[in-house]
Specification:
By secondary structure, the chain is an alpha/beta fold. It has one domain: Rossmann fold (3-Layer(aba) Sandwich), CATH 3.40.50. Helix content is about 40%, strand content about 20%. The chain has 9 helices and 11 strands. Strands 5-9-4-10-11 form a 5-stranded parallel β-sheet, with helices on both faces. Helix 1 packs across helix 9 and helix 3 packs parallel to helix 5. It is globular. It starts with 17 loop residues before the first strand and ends with a helix.
Length: about 270
């Protein structure tokens, strides 16, 4: 079998979601014809595998920024699970599919090809070959992502794909149910939180929104919190063994430094 020269730790999966990292040397991989996909070979010595780091928390807590910075410092891959839900929401908007139609959304997901390309500035997201990185950050897609994510069958499908991407280790995966559902046995689980007012202000500053639009966006954030915490499938909650970090009065540097310390502790414990 020829060497896998382009794709990184998670070359592909049968449903069409894959993560690419150019310019990186790849770990050992094998082709499993029964599943028609490339899989990561399991290491015989667990200490050789890099960590799986799960970062969960509500909107505006700073998960994406922290996960991206941490992944760069550790030379890990940053997997932004929310980008997958955003991509599906955008596809639903483009195809005029209701956010409430679970079966139609599941079909859309299965028929979509989502590619996550890690870059220095964060993940570049491609949907069926088209760069949608900027589009999925707009308000209508953000709102749609929260609504499509409540459906159990959609979440089940997404969780399966996310597991395929991260099973080899060396990943920082952020979302809302990574430590509780996607990787309940993750090496390190972080629940990143902050005061609701602080989170709202961070999101407004990020989007550069002021005036009447600011109140509207703050209301949307509160509604998203409600949906995330009360949905039947994988509600937003800290895993029992997660380290809870309240970033209300912490800088980005302080949060990253604290998580780095926790990573060092986990690595040392495995030696």
């Amino acid at each position: 079998m020829p060497a896998c020269a382009i794709f990184a730790r998670f070359p592909c999966c049968k449903a069409g979601i894959r993560l690419r990292q150019l310019g990186k040397r790849l770990p050992a991989c094998v082709y499993n014809s029964s599943f028609a996909k490339i899989q990561i070979k399991k290491m015989t010595n667990p200490s050789e595998r890099k960590l799986i780091i799960a970062i969960d928390g509500p909107a505006g807590a700073g998960k994406s920024t922290i996960a991206s910075r941490l992944a760069r410092k550790l030379d890990y891959v940053n997997l932004e699970s929310g980008a997958m839900y955003r991509a599906l929401a955008l596809r639903a908007i483009d195809w005029d599919v209701s956010f409430d139609d679970e079966e139609a959304l599941l079909k859309l997901a299965r028929d979509s090809r989502i590619v996550l390309e890690p870059t220095i500035g964060g993940n570049r997201v491609l949907l069926n070959g088209k760069d949608i990185s900027a589009r999925i950050r707009e308000r209508d897609v953000s709102e749609g992502a929260s609504r499509v994510s409540v459906h159990p069958k959609v979440r089940e499908w997404m969780v399966a794909k996310q597991r395929e991407m991260g099973i080899g280790g060396g990943v920082v995966m952020e979302g809302r149910d990574i430590g509780t559902k996607v990787f309940p046995d993750a090496d390190l689980k972080i629940f990143l939180d902050a005061d609701p007012v602080t989170r709202e202000q961070r999101r407004l500053d990020q989007q550069k929104v002021k005036g009447p639009s600011a109140e509207s966006m703050a209301a949307e954030l509160r509604e998203r919190d409600r949906r995330d915490r009360t949905r039947a499938a994988s509600p937003l909650v800290a895993a029992a063994d997660a380290v809870v970090l309240d970033s209300t009065h912490m800088s980005e540097d302080e949060v990253v430094q604290r998580i780095e310390e926790l990573v060092e502790q986990r690595v040392a414990a495995r030696r």
